[in-house]
Amino acid sequence: MYVGTNIIDGLTNALTMRRAHVGDRQFLELTVAKDFTGIDGFSPIYIGRGIIVSSITAWPVPHDAPYKHQLDRGIMAIAEAGLYEQWRKEMLENTMRDTRLKKREELRIDKDLGVKTAIESHEATDVLPLTVSHIQGPLIILLTGLFSGAMIFMTEKISA
């Protein structure tokens, strides 16, 4: 186990040393969107679906405060209506959009200055996106199998 100093070091170690990083989900998503997402919106970091460490929140309210029940009702209404989740999603989308715009601007400035970017320098070694012509063979095999299966089924139905 390695205890890091901040989240950026932890996520960098997750990429370079193949280690896991545990932290608050919302903070991890925002940091990955801000610092570890490319111009195309892709991030090499995967954030798991499960929650290992839940965030602990507390309100400094005395136990017998007269407004405690109203505060509990308000908090439950916000949580049950999904307002907190909606706020979290909007905040993440805004961060991702701002990051993409910032990186596009940096890319435009680099092109104006004539600096060769990492995208252009590794363009020949990048993986090409799949198109229909790339998967045409498996698609033909699938369709042939479906057609022959349907024909066999119809033959059995007719002969029975």
- Class of secondary structure makeup: mainly alpha
- Tell me the number of helical segments per DSSP (H or I, 4 or more residues long): 6
User: Would you list the SSEs in sequence order as H and E?
Assistant: HHHHHH
Beta fraction: under 5%
What's the helical proportion of residues?
55-70%
The overall average pLDDT, rounded, is 81
Report the span from N to C terminus.
66 Å
Plain-language structure description:
The structure is a single chain. This protein is mainly alpha-helical and 160 residues long. The chain has one domain. Helix 2 runs parallel beside helix 4. The longest helix has 31 residues. The radius of gyration is 26 Å and the shape is extended. The mean pLDDT is 81.
Per-chain topology:
Layout (H helix, E strand, L loop, with lengths): L6 H10 L8 H11 L32 H14 L1 H31 L4 H4 L14 H24 L1
Question: Which key phrases capture this entry?
Answer:
0% strand, mainly alpha, 160 residues
Summarize the structure.
By secondary structure, this protein is an all-alpha fold. The mean pLDDT is 81. Helix 2 runs parallel beside helix 4 (83-113).
